[in-house]
Amino acid sequence: MTERLDLPVDAPAARPGPTTRARVREVTGGRVRDRRDDVATEEPLEIRIAAGGHTRTLAVTMRTPGADFELAAGFLSGEGLAGPGDIASIAYCTEEALPPEARHNTVTVRLNRRELPDSPALARNFVTTSACGVCGAAGLAALRDRLGEPPAAAGAFPPVPAELLYGLPDRLRAAQSIFGKTGGLHAAGLLTADGELLAVREDVGRHNAVDKIVGWALLGDRLPLASCLLMVSGRTSYEIMQKAVAAGLPMVCAVSAPSSLAVDLAREFGVTLVGFLRGERFNIYANPARVAPHADARPQRGMRAGPEGN
After folding, report:
1. Which positions are catalytic?
2. Which end of the chain is more exposed for a tag (fewer CB within 10 A), N or C?
3. Closest CA to 45 of 130, 124, 139
4. Largest Cα–Cα separation, the chain
5. Cα angle value 232/176/18 (rounded, 5°)
6. To the nearest whole number, what is the mean pLDDT of the chain?
7. What's the pTM?
8. Is the dihedral of CA 171, 176, 180, 186 positive or negative?
């Protein structure tokens, strides 16, 4: 069980942190001992959108607390509801109707406009989990209609040496401070084409980690990310690729495999998609011209795609 602190009814609730202490029974061989351990915190975050005196609940996502404003901004960016200059403010909700424990689990994003955007996203009532991402995400045709010209095709991106890619998983892992305590978080990292690590975010949900990266870029006026690449610690799903396309990323790299829809989306929008990036090997599923191989590398046909990933 996780530890709880009994508070008076009128006491302010503490903001949840990224880790929670839990009592565990450790069994090693024939030895048993009881101890306390850190586990990754998972709590709901309700994201509200406001404009012109109107407020709507947009989504509820299960996330690891931390960088909540970036998460909300990145989610709106991925759904086409906010871009550079569109966000006036983001704040935790403090209305008295909310129970104290919910006030740090509810954020309102106020837009610089007189009315709420007329978007199908506001009608879908998203419920997302830490595992699957958004239920009912828009299809390829809808994404084409919203984005128009593929953002990733708009800017020049120099070929990335294969040797640089080899080191990305270890660099991402070394930057995961919370994973080191819990062993239970995904991560997303943003890097330049020459390998400079710009930002790393962690979360129980791989899609949330990407939203936090995109939100960091949006709130810092760094979008589109046409000169950067994204590295993720797990597999590349349709949702992650959708967010990358919307942010203008020209390259996405992952430790594990992509889904078929992620591959379709990468090919459709000109994104270089790298999977099974482990040790000194990887697969390129779409647009390989952005990866510069070893000078002595020779293509070989008939090789297996790689082991089954998480």
Report:
1. 132
2. N
3. 130
4. 69
5. 105
6. 83
7. 0.83
8. negative
